[in-house]
Amino acid sequence: MILNVNGSKYEARTEAHTLLDVLRNTLGLMGTKEGCGVGMCGACTVLMDGKPFSSCLLLAEQAGGKEILTIEGLGSAENLHTVQQMFLEHGAFQCAYCTPGFVLTTVALLDENPTPGDNEIREYLSGNLCRCGSYQNILQAVKAASQAE
Ligand code: FES
Ligand code: FES
Asked: What average pLDDT does the structure give for the chain?
């Protein structure tokens, strides 16, 4: 079937594959990370029609006709998205395995609510886990991004 990922159309075999599997192993988009594989960590978060989803829980066929955004489609090395820039400036990562998921979830949050309070940020990001414990820096980065946009 045809998948629309980061503004490009891809023909991919999707039967019985998760979206995470197709993104990484068919399309080679390795920025979407596999953590728990069961919807608990948020490492595999992508945006589907602007909303965050755990791609390990989605069958790829469920993404048919939708706009999928992965971290590769958000800004570039030369021109980072504001959220990426603020994560960088606030040191909001250590190993960075969780970062693509956190960044994409933050993009969705700020789209819904451009000026979230601390508790709203914590609640919206509660499905994303950081094993390195960078939560304070992540909070600062999200706040800075909300003020910068
Ligand atoms: S890998 Fe999908 S939620 Fe953890
Ligand atoms: S920076 Fe390592 S898991 Fe978050």
From this structure: 96
List ligand 2's pocket residues with C-beta within 6 A. 93-98, 130-132, 134
Work out the average pLDDT over 14-22.
92
pTM of the predicted protein model: 0.97
Ligand nearest to the CA of 132: 2
Say how far apart CA 4 and CA 97 lie, in whole Å.
24
For 82, half-sphere exposure in the C-beta direction (CA atoms, 13 angstrom radius) is 14
Ligand 1, CB within 6 Å, residue ranges: 34-37, 39-44, 54, 56
The token duo for 3 is 């998948």
Residue 46's DSSP bridge partners are 53
Q: How many Cα atoms sit within 13 Å of 138 on the Cβ side?
A: 26
Q: Which atom of ligand 2 is nearest to the CA of 133?
A: 4
